[in-house]
## 1
Amino acid sequence: MEGNVLIIGLGLIGGSIALALKKEHQQATVIGYDLNEQQAKLAKSLKVVDDCCEFYEEAALEADFILISVPVMQASKVLEKLSTLDFRKQVLISDVGSTKERIVEAGAALFPQKNVTFIGGHPMAGSHKSGIIAAKAHLFENAFYVLTPTDLERDAKQVETLKDWLKGTKANFVTMSAGEHDLVAGVVSHFPHIVAAGLVHQAEDLQQKSPFVSRLAAGGFRDITRIASSNPTMWKDILIHNKETLLQLIDSWQEQMNLVKLDLEDGNEEKLFDFFQKAKEFRDGLPVKAKGAIPSFYDLYVDVPDYPGVISEITGYLATEQISITNIRIMETREEIYGVLRLSFQTDEDRQSATECLGQYTNYETYIV
Ligand SMILES: NC(=O)c1ccc[n+]([C@@H]2O[C@H](COP(=O)([O-])OP(=O)(O)OC[C@H]3O[C@@H](n4cnc5c(N)ncnc54)[C@H](O)[C@@H]3O)[C@@H](O)[C@H]2O)c1
Ligand SMILES: O=C(O)C(=O)C[C@]1(C(=O)O)C=C[C@@H](O)C=C1
């Protein structure tokens, strides 16, 4: 597509979308603005945008597409500022905020004029890293990208235009109401971030009792708390915007913890087993996507002798058969002789091929848990 694009907020998400958009629409001119001047300058020198501006009013009036990619409380302010401009041509405005209801309400109220259309958006993939340095063109490949038009029938054409602008993200677009989005995102994204931060606080408090807490915080603790390293401003804003949903989720979580507590106090083995078994069944049955909310993990465990170079030996065999691994980790050392390697694959077929490959080249035992 040809045209002028303005991206307001040149961090992880704004930068990633700019890269994907420029790749797909080489005729488009992408102008970037960021409150943090250094960030904007860096975006220009890294060629994430064609140019950057000190004030965005002029670029906004010339834009065909404006994307707002700032923390959600700031997004409402940017929308207010844009609404004071005298747009003469047709312009499509969207955002990438992790919450939708309040932003979409503001968009609908602030732009009654026919030539300005606001459609809320949320790419459901990201990272705990922030800033332009972490931006990647492929960040949203295969991830869900939620669009929340206020009136699907009226905005149908603009929704298609928006998808065209965002085509380079290679995301899977889904449309839903802003309310439904905030409920679902609350459950699968916002609330888990609260729990992750809570677990880290608990570990930090207990660190006073034993310095081993942080030294032994490996494996499961690291997996479940990675997202606690995310940007605090972004998450503070998300909680404020999605307050009602999150208050309800906190209540139901507390109820659930109380039940586990009672079962534990009673020593009710059957109920405790059920708690984990039912969670496992639901988790194992979640749809597997290459990227997005739930990453796919097909794990294969390998008992290997504990000597230097064993990892490159294994990866070498798999490379010979062109089998790609998404992750590799040493789990433990047994009796100082054997180690357990966990190899993760994107598909069950890759895992099967890896089992056969290691069976052919080595006598190491492989197993699936
Ligand atoms: N990080 C994720 O995983 C993720 C995923 C999907 C959506 N989101 C949403 O994307 C948005 C941006 O998040 P991010 O991860 O890119 O954050 P980020 O910190 O990497 O980038 C945000 C940028 O916005 C700039 N900014 C702040 N206020 C501004 C304003 N008023 N005007 C112009 N620039 C301003 C900051 O200087 C910063 O460079 C947030 O709304 C977030 O909820 C984040
Ligand atoms: O992978 C991560 O680090 C994320 O937290 C990404 C994540 C998520 O919760 O899934 C975080 C916030 C976004 O709005 C969308 C995606």
## 2
Amino acid sequence: MQVVQILGTIIVGLSETEQLASADRIKRSYIWRVAMASILVAVIAALLGRLSWQLQKSRARVMEAQAEHARNVEYLAYHDNLTGLPNRALFSRLLYRQIQHAHRYKKQLALMFLDLDRFKEINDSLGHEAGDDLLKKMGRRLGESLRESDLVARLGGDEFIILLPEITEETQVTTVAGKILAAVAKPFTLAEQEFRITISIGIAMFPADGEDEQTLMKNADIAMYHAKEGGKNSFRFYSEKLNTDSLERLSLESGLRNALENNEFRLFYQSKQDMATGRMTGIEALLRWQHPDLGLIPPMQFIPLAEENGLIIPIGRWVFKTACRQNLAWQAQGFPKLSMAVNISRRQFFDEDFLKDVGDALQESQMAPELLELEITESVLMHDMDRTIGILKELKQMGVRVAIDDFGTGYSSLSKLREFPLDTLKIDGSFIQNMIPHAEIKNLTTALIDLGRSLGFTVVAEGVESKEQADLLRTHSCDQFQGFYINKPMPPEEFTLNWTTG
Ligand SMILES: Nc1nc2c(ncn2[C@@H]2O[C@@H]3COP(=O)(O)O[C@H]4[C@@H](O)[C@H](n5cnc6c(=O)[nH]c(N)nc65)O[C@@H]4COP(=O)(O)O[C@H]3[C@H]2O)c(=O)[nH]1
């Protein structure tokens, strides 16, 4: 078409230069348009290329994000999100593999079950944040006291588990357990305060104490339970004997269920004295279980069990009814009117029928409310402050007295103590028994006496065993005391006899 135009121009008779100039213009315009078209095509191609590259990149990003998500899900499924340690599921897998390996190469393994002593108390008194903080710090400390090849995991709550592979002799395990106890013994800073924490460790060995995961875990748990029973802050290897003891615990539990019906509980009584005059000021009722086969069982062996399974509620009801009745019986026999103290466990105190049960016991026995003193521990006090204060106020309205028991062993916030409507502060026996040999405990005990008195409480020293202790307490203006130095807890008949003659 353009060639025809050029020929057309020549035909109309223009000079050669003019004709060439015109053809040249048309040619340049043609080249320019071709160049523009090529650039356009190149730009479009470049844009398309970039688009496809971006598409590929974003596809790769999506795939990477999906992989990352899958990795996160897997991490969360196999790790404890508080401490970042492997969780039960991952530990179980790794343990299974290690057992197979140890089996094939005839090696030993050690499984350690760890449980924090009194973790609940810390959680309850300092709050869950401090409890979580402690668990995180504990996880880190455990990791630091082990070798790379050892494995530590958190099973949940305050339970940790450790696997030591390639053990050749038991002493290696003992060394590691000692190292762990020492690492944990250093103070922890929680809620800006320093705390000392202890743990109990139960150890089961592969293959001696079990050849599969379940048996090893169960036996390490049994050993841990016995380490706790034996005074906490210690470790214990599993043995057949421990297993028998655990079976005994089970039978104890089933026996406890029938003990109330079978009338197997007894109350023993211990008196309190005025420090200055030596006059008897009150009586404490202490529970015992007269087991048909095992004999007289002290409360600490079955009360935690009764707390766990809820039996403490009917047992506790029986305790304050019996104690009120006994007090009235003594009054009827002509003995002076004295206060009767009864221990209340946490589960009982927060039970919805608690106030009604106290009221019923008073009404039924016709004992004056001001003669009933309920002893609660520091951990009850700090568990749920608002609720506790509400219950204490209602008890006050009923005229009942309240004592804080085992004072000094918990984590009471001293500044909060004044907010509770309490009457008596009982200093724990462990202070009294250690204040003569240890000057710092003596100072602490006298500080507790001063604190209690300054808050207007009656201060009672528990567990006084010697004249020396009683004399020291007297010089520091303690109000009353209780302990083997005066008398041991005894059955009502013996108590009556003692009262008559003493
Ligand atoms: N080493 C020593 N110990 C002394 C001395 N004087 C008294 N004790 C013992 O110290 C414990 C004092 O009672 P607690 O601190 O309330 O501690 C009580 C209390 O927390 C709990 N408990 C006892 N009876 C009941 C009850 O009826 N209900 C509830 N919930 N808990 C109870 O069981 C704990 C232990 O009671 P028990 O074995 O009777 O032990 C009693 C008592 O026998 C002494 O001079 N030296």
